[in-house]
Amino acid sequence: MSAVLLEQKERIRKNSKADVERFIEESESKISSFERKQSQINVVELRDSRRIGPRVATLRHLLSPIYTLSAESLSEIFELSIGNQKHIKDVLRISQVCSDWRQFAQSTPQLWTRPMEMDLRKCRSNDVEGYIAWILRAAPLTMPVSLLPDASITRHTLDGILKTAPRWRSLQLLDNLKELDLAGDFNEDEPTAFPSFSAVPRLRKLYMIIYSTPLPIILSCTQLTNLTFGTHFPNIAFNILA
């Protein structure tokens, strides 16, 4: 079918839609004629009838909206067919209709830019690869991202997800967190492990003890109603609270 498709694409490249429709009508007329005199058909006519059928089917396919509408119109139609609550299923459904739809969907970034919630709790490697592939489909556009991590998340998983950060337009992380107890120490050899509390808008109570040398911890105190902060080095507390 692909060889016939390429052949007919090239054949009608300079023809109008009306010309193609007229050719289809003529071809179908020939097929009907072959069917009426099937008992009298010769070898040459039989060969022609077997060639015309696939060509007609291919030409009808080439007259479908995926080929006749502009990319802008198709993109708008696809976007309108995608629901906000089930946009992931809708986009996947569109991309699985046929190879033409899949090719168009994968080359249309705006179809992949709806908010993405990445549930990293007990996340498998296949899940991470799926999240990454989805976000990269949106390139060069960006998208809102929500992360749902827990204590089971591995460094490998986190590193994989963070590779897509340039494609994030906004980030929601622990947005329901209200109380946090950090009694442990932080490793100053791993700057990426330093906590930032700018992405926890509901945080009200914080208990934190630090024994290390000064660390670049981002702390917004305006939202806190209760803060317990312990350290052996007063300058650390002053630097963080400054």
Keywords, please?
242 residues; F-box_dom; three-stranded parallel β-sheet; F-box domain-containing protein; F-box-like_dom_sf; alpha/beta; 4 domains
Describe the structure.
The protein is an alpha/beta fold. The protein has four domains: 2-63; 70-109, no CATH class; 113-170; 174-242, no CATH class. The protein is built from ten helices and six strands. The strands form two sheets. It has a three-stranded parallel beta sheet with strand order 1-2-3, with no helix packed on it. A three-stranded parallel beta sheet has the order 4-5-6, covered by helices on one side. Helix 1 crosses helix 3 (43-62) and helix 2 packs antiparallel against helix 3 (43-62). It is rod-shaped.
Q: What gyration radius follows from the Cα positions, in whole Å?
A: 30 Å
Structural class: alpha/beta
Beta-sheet strand percentage? Answer: 5-15%
Number of contiguous helices: 10
List the domain count as a whole number.
4
Protein name: F-box domain-containing protein
Pfam family, one: F-box-like
Organism: Mycena sanguinolenta
Helix and strand topology:
Elements: H1 2-11, H2 17-36, H3 43-62, H4 65-68, H5 71-80, H6 87-95, H7 99-106, E1 116-119, H8 125-137, E2 143-148, H9 155-162, E3 168-173, E4 179-182, E5 205-210, E6 226-231, H10 234-241
Parallel strand pairs: 1-2, 2-3, 4-5, 5-6
Helix pairs in contact: 1-3, 2-3
